[in-house]
Design brief:
Pfam family, one: SOCS_box
Number of domains: 3
Organism: Paralvinella palmiformis
Distance between the termini: 61 Å
Radius of gyration: 22 Å
Shape: globular
Oligomer: single chain
Family: Belongs to the ankyrin SOCS box (ASB) family.
CATH architecture of the largest domain: Alpha Horseshoe
Largest sheet: none
Helix content: 55-70%
Protein name: SOCS box domain-containing protein
CATH class of the largest domain: Mainly Alpha
Keywords: ANK repeat, Repeat
């Protein structure tokens, strides 16, 4: 009996010490300018959850307009991506270079994150919109240097030679004709002896059907919450499955 009580008190003491350590760590992150960014970089999902619960803004961008969701996608941290989206992170937010989180996830090569972002309504064809006067001046021919060239998610996937990701993006309506600021289409970033090259060339030669275009538009209009309620609608099963990409 005495041994049991001693063990119980020791467990309570260790638990209290652990809670105190977590509290101090949490306060240290809160003191930073961008706590969510730093927590994600540190891969502390426990603290990320607590910061979200405590009301930290999930869409707060740093001086380069990079949001926590950008950071999570660049890091290939699927758990953080999932937590941020569930907390209301903007799936189509753009950083100072015009990149959205989907582009960053494709750059990292994390297929799970890409699938989740697409399910939440990520734009696979964002318009070229570089937000600073310096970027705009560059596009007009000014003699300045820009660190990053605008590319789409499909450009990233093609450059990374990721066939599953290219296929997924095409299924969600990624435009094979989109060009970067250098005038290159995604196919130009692949080798001619790869499956991706032939996949993209086929897509260029076979435009989307009207039915496929309707699916892209319907999914975009419904958004993730609407798609979750699609099964409740009195529609033919085959039509609901088609919109949901179910076999």
């Amino acid at each position: 009996m005495m041994l049991h009580l001693a063990s119980s008190k020791l467990f309570d003491l260790e638990t209290k010490q652990t809670d105190n350590i977590l509290f101090m760590e949490l306060q240290a992150f809160k003191a930073l300018s961008y706590p969510l960014h730093e927590v994600i970089i540190s891969k502390r999902h426990d603290l990320l959850h607590q910061l979200i619960v405590d009301g930290c803004r999930v869409n707060a961008g740093n001086f380069d307009a990079v949001t926590p969701l950008h950071v999570a996608c660049l890091a290939g941290d699927f758990t953080s991506v999932q937590m941020l989206l569930q907390a209301g992170a903007n799936v189509n937010v753009r950083d100072i270079d015009g990149a959205n989180p989907l582009c960053d996830a494709c750059n990292n090569g994390n297929l799970n994150s890409v699938e989740l972002l697409l399910d939440y309504g990520a734009d696979v064809n964002p318009k070229l919109s570089l937000t600073t006067p310096l970027h705009e001046a560059t596009l007009k021919g000014a003699n300045v240097n820009v660190a990053k060239t605008h590319i789409t998610s499909l450009h990233q996937a093609a450059a990374n030679n990721s066939q599953p990701m290219v296929q997924l993006l095409l299924e969600y309506g990624a435009c094979v004709y989109a060009t970067d600021t250098g005038g290159k289409r995604p196919v130009h970033l692949t080798r001619v002896d790869t499956e991706i090259y032939h996949l993209l060339k086929y897509a260029e030669s076979n435009p989307w059907t009207l039915m496929e275009l309707c699916r892209f538009r319907l999914r975009w209009s419904l958004g993730v919450k609407g798609l979750q309620q699609l099964d409740k609608l009195r529609l033919p099963t085959f039509l609901k499955h088609y919109v949901q990409y179910k076999s």
